[in-house]
Structures are given as C-alpha cells and as structure tokens.
Amino acid sequence: MNTLKINIFLARKLLTGLLTYTPFLNHTLFRMRESLTGHSRRQVAIATAPYCYAVWMRHLLQWHTTDTGRFPEAVAEIGPGNSLGVGLAALLSGINRYYALDAVAQVDFQKNRDILDDLVKLFADKTRIPDHEEYPDLGPPLQSYAFPDHILPNDRLSVSLKAKRIERIRQNIGNMSSRENSDMLIYITPWSGALPPGMIESLDWVLSQFVMEHV
C-alpha cells in the first residue's frame, strides 16, 4: 500500500472513531443498542478476556484484508472503556505499541492484569475465535473462526508470547496505574479528540470496537 492509500486508510479509521466520541452521537448509539439488545451501557462496557480476544481477532482479520503487506507496529483504540483487553491482545499478537484514548479515566488496573493472564492462555492454546453463538451482538461475522495461523504463525507467537515480553506488558499496566511512562501501553486521558504531536505519523491503525458494531 502506498503512502497516500495508508493516509486515506488511517484518516477513515480515525474519523469513524472520532464520530463515536461526539457526545450526542455516542449517547444516541448507546440508547439504540440498549433498545435493540436489552443490554444497558454498563453491561455493554464489561469485558472479559474471551470477549476482548474475539474483538481483537476480528480487527486483525480485517487488517489482513488490506494490501499493506505487513504486520502493524502501532495501533490506537478510541474509547476502550474500563478494559484494555483489546490492546493487550494486540500486544500479545506482536504489536509493539498500543495507545488507549478515552474521555474519562475508568480503567481497572488489577482487572486488566487478570485479563492479560487469561489472554496469554488463549493465545498459547491457539483458541478458536468465539463466534456469534457466544457473543451474538459481536460483529462482523467471519468466514472461519479457526485460529488465524496464517497471520499469527508459530515463529511470531514464539516471540510475542515470551515470558520476558509478557512481564514487560504487565509492568506497563503497573506504570499506567502510577502514571509513570509506559513504552508499550500508553493511556491518554482525558482525551478530547486531539492527538499528541507526531502520534498520527507513528500509527498504522486507529480502531474503535463500538463503531465496528454499528457499521
């Protein structure tokens, strides 16, 4: 993918994500989802390791359909809520930097350490991607729910799941809770839509799961 196509791809993803953080639209979409699914905003926000794994795998498969020809190095998530599980799954896949952008700080750091431990097992076991029977509201549907060995082969996982790397991710979670600098997991809050200087140039991808569920 040439530079122009990459910029268009990033701009489209960023714009789509920003729309969900327009307060009126964000509130309206949540109300629509509540009426359609019967789930409250609080219920929607609760995330487990299998759910985050399912979400991340869908995004990763979507990325693979682009013609970039390479694995992403840095991603940002808009509105992760109280769980950074999608970003942790991204890091365990081999992505080197994850930015979490949220309007309000609401992360439960101990919960995210627990989610990390559970995600490690899911990746190590090459767990099948949870389907619509497990998460009926989660989209998009996939052609196959088998573990994507073609994207995450053994040689990649042998590096991304090294004990030292997992411990480094765990330390990053701890650094976030003490507001120290993290080199792999960067939590930016309160976030109002502006990106730090130079950040957009370093990103391969901007995602928002809430948007993905409504397109």
Written overview of the protein:
This protein is α/β, with parallel strands linked by helices and 215 residues long. It has one domain. 51% of the residues lie in helices and 8% in strands. The chain is built from ten helices and four strands; from the N terminus they run ααααβαβαααβαβα. The chain has a four-stranded parallel sheet. α5 runs parallel beside α6 (109-124). The chain is globular and about 40 Å long. The relative contact order is 0.19. The model is unreliable at 1-13, 15-30, 36-45 and 211-215 (pLDDT under 50).
Structural class: alpha/beta
In sequence order, what are the helices and strands, one letter per element?
Answer: HHHHEHEHHHEHEH
Mean pLDDT: 78
Shape: globular
Tell me how many strands there are.
Answer: 4
Most strands sheet: 4 strands, parallel
The radius of gyration computed from the alpha-carbon positions, rounded to a whole number of angstroms, is 16 Å
What's the number of domains? 1
In the predicted model, the low-confidence regions spanning at least 5 consecutive residues are: 1-13, 15-30, 36-45, 211-215
Strand content of the residues, in percent? 5-15%
Number of helices: 10
Q: Give the fraction of residues assigned to helices.
A: 40-55%
The N- to C-terminal Cα distance equals 24 Å
Report strand order across the widest sheet.
3-2-1-4
Question: Can you tag this structure with a few keywords?
Answer:
disordered C terminus, alpha/beta, 215 residues, 8% strand, four-stranded parallel beta sheet, 10 helices, disordered N terminus, globular, 4 strands
